[in-house]
C-alpha cells in the first residue's frame, strides 16, 4: 500500500519534470542543434547536408572532414579557435560556423554596456548625460592618459588680431 503511493507520487513527479524540461528545451531547439551538428563536430560519420547549405559548401565540408590534419587540429583546439584557424583554407565553412557561434559572445558586450551604464549613472551623477562617458568607457581604443602624463607640457599663447 505504502509502496504503491510512493510509486504513484514518483511517476507524477517525473511526468511533471518531463513537461518542465520540454518547456525549457523545446523540440524545435533540438532540431536546430541537429541541423548544426556539423559545427560542433564536422568529423562525424554520415554527415547530412543542412538545407541552408549550398552544394559547393557541402562539398568543402566533406573534403575537410576527410582531412586527418584538420581532425587532429579540431581535437586539440577549442571550437571557436578551430573555425577561426581554418578561415583561409575553408572561408565559406568558417564564415557559416562563426555566424552561428557568434551570438553567444555578443551577450557579453551587452552586459558590459549595462554595467558601465549602471556605474556611470550613480546617485551623484544622476543628472548628467551618460552617453559621452559610456562612449569613452566602452571604447576599444586604449586609454592615452598615461602617455599624456609623460609628455612635456607646452604653454599656448593665442595671438590676438586687431
UniProtKB/TrEMBL annotation:
<dbReference type="GO" id="GO:0046983">
    <property type="term" value="F:protein dimerization activity"/>
</dbReference>
<dbReference type="InterPro" id="IPR008906">
    <property type="entry name" value="HATC_C_dom"/>
</dbReference>
<protein>
    <submittedName>
        <fullName>Zinc finger BED domain-containing protein 5</fullName>
    </submittedName>
</protein>
<dbReference type="Pfam" id="PF05699">
    <property type="entry name" value="Dimer_Tnp_hAT"/>
</dbReference>
<feature type="domain" description="HAT C-terminal dimerisation">
    <location>
        <begin position="70"/>
        <end position="131"/>
    </location>
</feature>
<dbReference type="InterPro" id="IPR012337">
    <property type="entry name" value="RNaseH-like_sf"/>
</dbReference>
Amino acid at each position: 500500500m505504502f509502496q504503491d503511493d510512493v510509486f504513484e507520487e514518483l511517476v507524477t513527479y517525473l511526468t511533471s519534470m518531463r513537461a518542465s524540461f520540454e518547456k525549457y528545451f523545446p523540440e524545435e531547439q533540438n532540431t536546430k542543434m541537429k541541423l548544426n551538428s556539423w559545427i560542433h563536430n564536422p568529423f562525424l560519420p554520415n554527415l547530412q547536408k543542412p538545407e541552408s547549405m549550398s552544394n559547393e559548401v557541402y562539398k568543402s565540408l566533406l573534403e575537410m572532414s576527410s582531412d586527418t590534419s584538420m581532425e587532429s587540429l579540431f581535437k586539440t583546439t577549442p571550437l571557436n579557435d578551430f573555425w577561426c584557424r581554418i578561415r583561409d583554407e575553408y572561408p565559406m565553412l568558417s564564415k557559416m560556423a562563426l555566424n552561428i557561434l557568434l551570438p553567444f559572445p555578443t551577450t557579453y558586450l551587452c552586459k558590459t554596456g549595462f554595467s558601465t551604464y549602471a556605474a556611470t549613472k550613480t546617485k551623484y551623477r544622476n543628472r548628467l548625460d551618460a552617453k559621452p562617458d559610456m562612449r569613452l568607457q566602452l571604447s576599444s581604443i586604449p586609454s592615452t592618459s598615461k602617455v599624456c602624463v609623460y609628455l612635456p607640457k607646452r604653454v599656448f599663447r593665442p595671438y590676438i588680431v586687431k
